[in-house]
Amino acid sequence: MIQSSLTPSTITIIVLYHSRHGTTQQLARHIARGIESVEHCQASLRTVADINPDDAHPTADPIIEIKELKQCDGLAIGSPVWFGNMSAAMKHFWDQTTSLWISGDLIDKPACVFTSSSSPHGGQETTQQSMMLPLLHHGMMIMGLPYSEPNLHTSFKGGTPYGASSISKQGHSGLDKQVTELAFAQGQRLAKAALALSSINTSFP
């Protein structure tokens, strides 16, 4: 993503993900593209640390630091489907955010979720719902994908009203075009909401 110097009017949205085989990482990048298509919005791609070092996969994106969440204006989080739930690494990260919950640092910030699975019935929607739970406890404002997105009606490779998703077999490279368009749209919608909320908060201290 573009790493230009920030201006006072620029807002930052974190795209946080855990990816085992790369599909969730690809979705994160398309969401980040959607965010940065909105003027004055910058995406910050971050990942979470694997619990078991032997499971770690190389990534070009830095591991998230909890303090970064205090400073962001919005958040998108993504995880592959693990038995209908978010991955252990993503859950472990959120289990360490009690200090943010106590201080209320994430209250009223917009957020969205995204996921990927290797089969149509892998548990995408329950995984997305599992990622929403800590966000709700933090007081965040969760956004999905409305059916005004045409691809949500016709895509067979992913996409849910809960957020962007992908169905792809392990080892297959590239995402379906409709899936990438939905991810882009989700990032764009999140950015517009974050920008509007930021403007409101600036105008009415």
Descriptive account of the structure:
- This protein is of the alpha/beta class and 205 residues long.
- The chain has a single domain (11-203), classed as Rossmann fold.
- 38% of the residues lie in helices and 17% in strands.
- Strands 1, 2, 3, 4, 5 and 6 form a six-stranded parallel β-sheet that branches.
- α1 packs across α7.
- The radius of gyration is 16 Å and the shape is globular.
- The chain starts with 10 loop residues before the first strand and ends with a helix.
pLDDT averaged over residues = 90
Radius of gyration: 16 Å
The largest sheet, given as strand count, sense and whether it forms a barrel, is: 6 strands, parallel
Percent strand equals: 15-25%
What fold name goes in the CATH topology slot?
Rossmann fold
A few lines on this structure:
The protein has helices at residues 23-36, 66-71, 88-94, 98-103, 124-137, 151-154, 177-203; strands at residues 11-17, 41-47, 74-80, 110-117, 141-142, 165-167. It has 205 residues and is of the alpha/beta class. Strands 1, 2, 3, 4, 5 and 6 form a six-stranded parallel β-sheet that branches.
